């Protein structure tokens, strides 16, 4: 796991880094756009990747997008990525005559 993926940053620090209020960050979590981990005590922990994602979400919201549009767009991108990976695995399996 990359250091960018480790969930170690508290919501207060994320707020300072992104310029978003803690309330906005929690709202994006409620809308299923961001997925922090929780400590045993319930504290949210974010990664640097999450911070980048929050900035991207904020920019899209400023451009007039709605949260459901952002989620829908990201789901589409994920499906496309998964399809590309599946096709690539198929091509590699065919090229090297790998059978499952």
UniProtKB/TrEMBL annotation:
One of its GO terms (molecular function) is DNA binding. It comes from the Bacteria. InterPro entries: DNA-bd_dom_put_sf, MerR-type_HTH_dom, MerR_fam. Residues 8-76 form the HTH merR-type domain. Keywords: DNA-binding, Repressor, Transcription, Transcription regulation. Pfam families: MerR_1. This is MerR family transcriptional regulator. It comes from Anaerobacillus arseniciselenatis.
């Amino acid at each position: 796991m990359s250091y960018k993926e480790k969930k170690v940053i508290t919501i207060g620090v994320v707020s300072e880094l992104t310029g978003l209020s803690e309330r906005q960050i929690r709202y994006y979590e409620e809308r299923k756009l961001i997925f922090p981990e929780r400590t045993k005590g319930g504290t949210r922990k974010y990664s640097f990747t999450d911070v980048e994602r929050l900035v991207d979400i904020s920019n899209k919201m400023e451009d007039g997008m709605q949260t459901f549009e952002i989620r829908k767009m990201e789901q589409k991108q994920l499906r496309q990525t998964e399809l590309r990976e599946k096709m690539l695995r198929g091509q590699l399996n065919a090229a090297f005559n790998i059978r499952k």
